[in-house]
Structure formats: C-alpha cells, structure tokens
Design a protein that fits this description.
- By secondary structure, the protein is α+β, with helices and mostly antiparallel strands.
- The chain is built from three helices and six strands; from the N terminus they run E-E-E-H-E-H-H-E-E.
- Strand 2 and strand 3 form a beta hairpin.
- The mean pLDDT is 95.
C-alpha cells in the first residue's frame, strides 16, 4: 500500500470546535466562529486540490496550529516563544483544533473521519497565524 500526501495551509487564527448551542426553544445551532473556520479549512483544501475525489480508505492527519505571539509580551518572552522553548498552552485546546479540521474535511477530503487511524496536533507560536495540515491517504496495494 502506498501513501498519497496532501498538505495545505489555512491562513486563519486557529480556533477550536465549539460545542453546539441550544436556544430557549430547544433549537440547536453551531456557533458562527466554528462555521466560518470550517468553511475556511474547506476552501483552502479545495483551492489546493481542485478536482479531488473524496478518499474512502485509511488515512492519517497532522495539524500544526500556529499562533501569533502577543504584542504585550517582553522581547525575552517573545524570543522564547518563537524559539519553541515557550509552549502554547492556552486555549484553544489542541483536541478541539483537531476536531474542527477533521469535521471540516468530512465529505470534502475523505468520506468519514472515522477512517483516520493516526492523528496528531501541535500548537506553537510564530510570526503568522495559521493551520498547516498534512493528510496521508493510503491508496492501492
């Protein structure tokens, strides 16, 4: 079996998948920020891989969520963040960022995210916010 690599970049500030909300009348809805972020992920994938046929088979996913260092931080703290010695340990949670990307790519990149057998997500600091996504699609024998 061989693996087809699909990697793409989404130029957004990473957000986590928010829980569905319920109104007083019992109606459920997805928060706007989640819907917009999922649409951005889908758009970036479709732009990178026009004509992609939805994959129906095992796959892996790796997500790197990059956050901009806050302007209020000292030069020393900023340098540590950019060097990778100061980790991004605040919200959004890494698993919620991964969930957002996985759900956004359902029926776009692959048939169902249940086919993902290996998933990794990392959060870091950088000069530019964004999501780097790498899919490994197992194909043929």
């Amino acid at each position: 079996m061989s693996t087809r690599r699909l990697d793409f970049y989404v130029a957004i500030t990473p957000v986590g998948k928010a829980r569905a909300r319920v109104t007083k009348t019992g109606h459920t809805y997805t928060p706007d920020a989640t819907m917009k972020a999922e649409a951005d992920v889908q758009w970036a994938f479709k732009a990178a891989f026009p004509g992609h046929v939805t994959h129906d088979g095992p796959l892996t996913i790796l997500v790197l969520a990059t956050f901009v260092v806050p302007k209020s931080w000292s030069k020393k703290k900023r340098a540590a963040a950019l060097a990778g010695t100061l980790r991004h340990t605040s919200k959004p949670d890494a698993d919620n960022v991964l969930k957002l990307v996985k759900d956004a790519l359902n029926m776009v990149a692959y048939t169902d995210d249940s086919a993902i057998y290996d998933a990794h997500v990392m959060k870091c600091y950088g000069d530019t916010a964004g999501l780097s996504v790498l899919l490994g699609l197992e194909v043929g024998t």
